[in-house]
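Notes from hallway chat w/ T.B., transcribed later so I don't forget. T.B. wanted the structure written out for a chain they're using in a teaching module, and asked if we could keep both sequence and structure tokens in one place. Agreed to drop them here.
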Amino acid sequence: MSAKINSQNCLFAVTRPRRFGKTVTAHMLSAYYSKGYADQNIFDKLEISNKGSYSEHLNKYNVIYIDMNSIKDKYISYKSDKSLYIEAIDDIVDFLQYMVIRDLKENKEYAEQISSDPLIGKKSYLPRWKLYANIPTKNSF
């Protein structure tokens, strides 16, 4: 997986039967790659720590973790409460984009770049904007 992160073939699909650890796997990948877990030595006693690329990738990436179940629940709440309506957010894809952009704006590292780009948040911009659930990204914004 680490070898593909900065390549053209950097998309990963975690497919497992229902109740077979997709969320646990996604959390483990996030813990390994995400800067948010830095200085937590949870992998030090595992076999992966003996790999040459272990420290090269450990906690080096900005990770966007999207829990689709919570997004669905938030979207249902959004749709049922007319006082929450936001213009141009008509479906779950628009809502997902809005939620991710909102959360990124709270991160100082991305806030200025997002605020200065007039296309971010527009429907025509969505195909250019890469949203990958549970995928580590590096310098993608």
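Follow-up for T.B.: The beta strands are 62-64, 135-137. Might be a good example for the class.
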